Q: What sequence folds into this?
């Protein structure tokens, strides 16, 4: 579970967590999940038991070709969120 910086929006930890969970379950960056067609995303959102958040800022973490976790970042621009998540995942 994440933290938020002083002055950060109250929902930021929830958004970051949803991005991380999305990245882990799809085993791809959340930006790429957002590229799925609307029909597929709608079906997934109605089927799975986690929040699918296809916004940039979620990056899966793999070691030796195996997915071991993910990181989600929220609070800046989409590009900045993704840059920070990539840095954290590396």
A:
């Amino acid at each position: 579970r994440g933290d938020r910086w002083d002055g950060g929006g109250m929902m930021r930890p929830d958004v970051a967590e949803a991005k991380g969970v999305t990245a882990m379950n799809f085993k791809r960056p959340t930006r790429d999940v957002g590229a799925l067609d609307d029909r597929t995303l709608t079906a997934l959102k109605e089927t799975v038991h986690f929040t699918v958040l296809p916004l940039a800022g979620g990056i899966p973490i793999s070691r030796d070709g195996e997915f071991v976790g993910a990181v989600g970042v929220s609070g800046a621009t989409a590009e900045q969120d993704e840059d920070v998540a990539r840095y954290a995942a590396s």
